[in-house]
Amino acid sequence: MNVRSQIVGCGSYLPERVMTNDEIATFLDTSDEWIAARTGIRQRHIAAEGELTSDLAFNAADSALRAAGIRACEVDLILVATTTPDKTFPATATRVQAMLGAEGGPAFDLQAVCTGFIYALAVADSFIRLGQVDTAVVIGAETMSRLLDWEDRSTCVLFGDGAGAVVLKSSNHHAPSGSGGRENLPRGILSTHLHADGRIGNLLQTDGGPSSTGTVGTLKMSGREVFRHAVANLASVLEEALAANGMTPADIDWVVPHQANRRIIEGTIRKLGLDEDRVIITIERHANTSAASIPLALDEGVRDGRIQPGQVLLMEAMGGGMTWGAGLARW
Ligand code: ACO
After folding, report:
1. Is 154 in the pocket of ligand 1 (CB under 6 A)?
2. Over the stretch 21-47, which tens digit does the pLDDT of each residue have?
3. Shortest-distance Cα residue to atom 9 of ligand 1
């Protein structure tokens, strides 16, 4: 009997305000054609003044708990993957815990930029497999709009705000002896694979922070270099995830990628030999919401009925650090 983490519900939240490419073109030297052709992005959501990362995270977590039919008082662990916490401290997760009414268990933030959700999923999965908690809420939530230099057209057009969440619950899986094949795969997280290379951290970073400048700073990026590393590292971690599970791309029902750039997604799935009609893509409407993009895409795929029970999902992300990772799950 193996203890596994099953994903028993998901939810998401997008701020009401939508900013289109055309709107950005009213105050910057850019165009909808340029942005859409280079990135696939047409619009992004922007948090309202006074609307915090914790507000977005709470809404996503609340909706995930409702979908799972689990009460907040049953939640043991709350993890918020974010690059844009409400405050330097306390952790945004602790405010979300208070808003949900789930106090008592551990609640903390995890920072791996755009790979944050995969990192948080791996950590929560480990807590559950070790028997330390039974029920966890894993949230990716970002107000990236607050980190942007709105005069820098090469970065501010790329990002948006939003949040997504999943509820994980421990389940016992009895593996039949000599079993192979998809039908015998357990439901839930099958494996996670995490990487980082701090030597290239300067390719995507903020120019400030509590211990360096005492300010938050704004986002700086070497776009072409990030692009090059992203496609190479994502293809490699996807192969690693498939090999670890004895799978081939044909075994994957849905790829749920981090939505950084449509061309990065296309380049990565082309390397795997997968068709685009098996990829959940939200970048056109959400832009890059960093740690929130995977659970936002997952929730969309579940709510519109594309993702069905028993299907195999491959999640992947690459972000500042540089960090990258993948997770395989059976829905
Ligand atoms: N509108 C119009 N022109 C622009 C814009 C804009 N928004 N941004 C840059 N340009 C101009 C530049 O000024 C430059 O002009 P110049 O030749 O006169 O100097 C020209 O376009 C080319 O600039 P590049 O930066 O070389 O453009 P590139 O083709 O590399 O595209 C982009 C830029 C879209 C950022 C690309 O490098 C990319 O997709 N990189 C991946 C980075 C990414 O997706 N990051 C997301 C965060 S990281 C993550 O989540 C993994």
Report:
1. yes
2. 999 999 999 999 999 999 999 999 999
3. 154
